[in-house]
Amino acid sequence: MIRVEKLSRTFGEVAALNAVDLQVRKHQTTVIMGGSGSGKTTLLRMLAALDKPSSGHVWFDGHDLASIRRKELYELRARMGMVFQYSALLNSLNVYDNVAFTLHEHTQLDESIIRTMVTMKLEQVGLRGFESFMPSELSGGMAKRVAFARALAMDPEIVFFDEPTSGLDPISAGVIATLIKDLTQKTHMTSVVVTHDVHAGLQIADYIILLWQGDIIAEGTPDEIRQHADERVQQFLEGRPDGPIPFSRSKTAYIDDLLHKPGVVRIL
Amino acid sequence: MMSVSFDAVIRLLGSLGRFALTSLDRMGDATTLSLSSLALLFRRPWQGQHIVLQLYALGVGSFIIIAITGAFTGMVLALQGYYTLAKFGSESLLGAGVALSIIRELGPVLGALMLIGRAGSSITAEIGIMRVTEQVDALEMMAINPRARVLLPRIIATTIALPILVTMFDIIGLASGYVIGVELLGVNGGAYIGEMISKVMLQDLYAGWVKAVGFGFIIGVICTYMGYRAEPTTEGVAAATTKAVVAASVGVLIMNYVLTSFFL
Questions:
Q1: Within-domain flag for B37
Q2: Looking at the 3D structure of chain B, how many domains does it have?
Q3: Within 13 A of B171's CA, how many CA atoms are on the CB side?
Q4: Do A50 and B135 touch (CB under 8 A)?
Q5: Would you say residue B88 lies in a domain?
Q6: Which residues 30-59 of chain B have a CB within 8 Å of chain A?
Q7: Å between B135 CA and nearest CA of chain A
Q8: Contact A50 B140 (CB under 8 A)
Q9: From start to end of chain A, where are the E strands?
């Protein structure tokens, strides 16, 4: 479905991704895991063509997203959906109009048909009856489910999830994780999930890609990842604060800083 | 000692140059962004409905503040004008004085400054918050060009709304100037109106409207740009809103001088 070749992205001097290669297979849930600053959100934004790579290619079903024209991209977007970290519902519209948004914008369907479709999508995420609620009246978990329903509105082939479980209580997080797994299987869609939630990631993934500082350090099925020999992988899965990935991110020698040695680099 | 001050001069020149470069850079960016948005006016899908919505929100919403400003500006001009003109015994010119000041200068400028405060700041804050909450990206993912949907209608709306608001400002200002001049200060009503009609030329009205269109346009461009390029954090949106109000106000005042020098 998506093939990524030597993908790099730099922000000024800082490299967020270093020539990454990977594949997203059809009808699977691919989970991209990593800590903060590992480059996973940057990677997702480029898979969804929200950001342009500094170098390399993202092939989406034969189209190179790095050099695609806006018109073609917008046609491809009908086949993509995205659930954003903070849901990103349009806050001037109620739940119904948010879910119906792409149908209103890109189809000439009758309102009665759109109503039926919206009802079905809301039923899939378990929120039928909330049509007239405004986004500000929803809890975080409910807003995410509405965002999920909105992403499903055009029956996309692939849905991107940015941190679907972060900021949610364990039960809501579990609900979202289960929804992703179930809907991916039932509707034969493809899901790409970016998360630092190890528990949810291992639970829903068919394939896991583990990023660290802009490099892929491990990939495979959840079981392969659980048994991975790399110490960094085990540290991430267990959430140990110190190990091969060091606790201290200080850039200067501690003793120099304490002694106020000249020439010490100060970090804000 | 000498070398220290020399260093200071170099540093000063350096920071001046940096300031000039970043300013030019941002102006160029703002120009490309707004031109590329405006070009979408002639492309499908047609954004008419969204332009009307913005016209209502920004234009109609600003009417009350414009009316109040217009009324008090007309009133104070009549008071000040009477005080000055009475010294030369030419109170009968009061009508012409008030009308020319309002139509040529104060209507467009004060109208623009009020629109910046009332509508410009909210444009920047709204677009900035859409950025923070990823709504701009969400539109992009749903194959809606945010430039066409978010930026374009607001630029068009301020450009159309300001001339209309300025016309209302002028009418209310002239009427309240008349009330103060004639009813309160006792200037002859016939002379007030007669002088006003004979001294105000059609080209004065045009000058006012051209200014209003120009001001409305740069308000739209600056305020949408600042919001769209706001750093996606709470502080970023706050800073962008302040910057938008300052830049738009200064822009209006500079543009006002340039346009006035053309029209005289």
A1: no
A2: 1
A3: 7
A4: no
A5: yes
A6: 45
A7: 5
A8: yes
A9: 2-11, 14-24, 29-33, 55-60, 63-64, 80-83, 158-162, 190-195, 207-212, 215-220
Burial of residue B224 (CB within 10 Å: 0-12, 13-18, 19+) is buried
Q: How far is A234 from chain B (nearest CA, A)?
A: 33
The DSSP symbol for A94 reads -
**Domain around B93:** 63-263
Distance from CA of B193 to the nearest CA of A (A): 48
| B195 domain residue, yes or no | yes
Is residue B31 one of the residues assigned to a domain? no
User: What tokens appear for A82 in the block?
Assistant: 């995205």
**pLDDT, tens digit, for every residue of B157-214?**
999 999 999 999 999 999 999 999 999 998 888 988 998 899 988 889 999 999 999 9
Interchain CB distance below 8 Å, B135 and A70: no
DSSP reduced 3-state for A22: strand
CB atoms within 10 A of CB B264: 7
* Probe site for chain B from A87, A93, A97, A161 (most B CB atoms < 10 A): A87
Per-residue pLDDT tens over the stretch B204-259? 999 999 999 999 999 999 999 999 999 989 999 999 999 999 999 999 999 999 99
